[in-house]
Write a structure and sequence with these properties.
Blueprint (H helix, E strand, L loop, with lengths): L4 H23 L10 E6 L2 H6 L11 E6 L6 H16 L19 E3 L10 E7 L2 E9 L3 E5 L7 E2 L13 E8 L2 E7 L2 E5 L7 E2 L10 E8 L2 E6 L4 E4 L7 E2 L5 H7 L15 E6 L5 E5 L4 E5 L7 E4 L6 E6 L5 E5 L3 E5 L8 E4 L8 E6 L5 E5 L3 E5 L7 E2 L10 E6 L5 E5 L3 E5 L2
Helix pairs in contact: 1-3
Organism: Vigna radiata var. radiata (Mung bean)
InterPro entries: PSII_CF48-like_dom (IPR028203), WD40/YVTN_repeat-like_dom_sf (IPR015943)
Protein name: Photosystem II stability/assembly factor HCF136, chloroplastic-like
Amino acid sequence: MATTAFQQSAFAGQTALKQVNEFVGKTGGSGKGRTNMRRTVMVVPQSIWSSLHSSRTFPRNRSLVVKASSSSSSSDDISRSRRRFLAETAAISVSLPHFPARAEDTLSEWERVYLPIDPGVVLLDIAFVPDDPNHGFLLGTRQTILETKDGGNTWAARSIPSAEDEDFNYRFNSISFKGKEGWIVGKPAILLYTADAGESWERIPLSAELPGDMVYIKATGEKSAEMVTDEGAIYVTANRGYNWRAAVQETVSATLNRTVSSGISGASYYTGTFNTVNRSPDGRYVAVSSRGNFYLTWEPGQPFWQPHNRAVARRIQNMGWRADGGLWLLVRGGGLYLSKGTGLTEEFEEVPVQSRGFGILDVGYRSTDEAWAAGGSGILLRTTNGGKSWIRDKAADNIAANLYSVKFIDDKKGFVLGNDGVLLRFLG
C-alpha cells in the first residue's frame, strides 16, 4: 500500500526526533561531570520556516535550538517539547536535515587513509604510474614499500625480493615514473628499476665511491633518469642505469671550500649536506644546506652549484618551485616567503600565514593559483591566489602528527605525508 506524503513526513519527523532524543539522552540529566551546557543547532530551510511562521516553537533566528542541561529541565517539559516537535514536523512535506558530522570525522577536502604499517614508520615519497593513475607506490623507512591499485584508497605491503637483504634495513627516499618505467633510490645505497609499471623490480649495481647518500631521483625519458645525492652530486643515465654521467664537476663541499671568498655566510670550510632538494619541471634545482644558513641553485648546463645568502634572518626550513616558475621559501618558526617575479632571484617578500607558531614544512601546488602548505601539529594552509594569502584549514587540527610533505600527482589527486604513518588523500 502506497504511503501518503503525510505518512512520509511523519516518518521523517520521527527519525529527526529520535536523533534529538539520543542527543538529549547523552547530554541531559544531572550528576557529576555534567556541569557543562551543551546544545546542537539544526538549520531549518526557508520552506519549512514559511509553513511554521505562526509557531512559537522556532525562535526568530530560524533555527531550532534543543538544549540539554542539568536537572533544571523537568521530564514533563522535555516530553511536551517532543510531542510538539513531532506534531509540527509531521505536517510538513519535506524532511529536516541530518545532524552535521563531527569535525574530527571529516577533513573537508582531505581524508585520512590508514596504512598497514608499524608505528614509527616515516613516509618519504609517493608516485603513480602515468599510464594507470590508480596504480601507485608509497615509500618510507624500515624498508617500507606500499602499493595501491585503487587510486590511493587502500594500500598493501609490497615485497621486492631484490631489495631484501638481511644485513640492511633500507630507507627508501624517492620514487619516480615515466610511462611504465620507474625508479627507486634509498639508503644504504640502493637503486631499483622497473620497465613494467612496478610489477617486477630489478636492482641496479652502484659504485661504492658514490659521494653521499641518494636522496632524489627523477625519471626523465625512456631508460633515462636523473639522480641527486645529499652532497650535491647529480648523475644522469640514458641506458637503464648501467652507466651514469656526472652533471656537475664537484660536490657542494668542494665548490664552497674552493671559493672561500665567495661571500656566502657559512660557506668557508663547509662539510655539511643538503637538508632538502627540489626540482622544477624544467630541470632546475634548489637545495637548502643542512644548517639552513644558505641555499643553492643549479640549472642544466652549469658546471657547479650556485650558492646564495638567505634573504631573511631566520634559518631556512625548506624551499621549492611555484607553479609559475618562482620560488617559495619556508623559515623556522612558521614564516613563508615568495620570491619576487618568476625568475631566479634573491629577493623575497613575506606572506602572512596562520601557522600558530608551528613550523611550515612543505608546499605543494595543485595549479597556478591553488596550493596547500603543511606543517607541525597538523597545520594545513590553502591559497587560491598563487600564494598571496593563505587560509588555515582547521579540519586537520585534531591529527597528532607533523605533516611534512605535500604532493599533487595532478589537479585531482594529491597526498599529504606525516610522521607515524599519517597519510591524507585529497578529495577535491
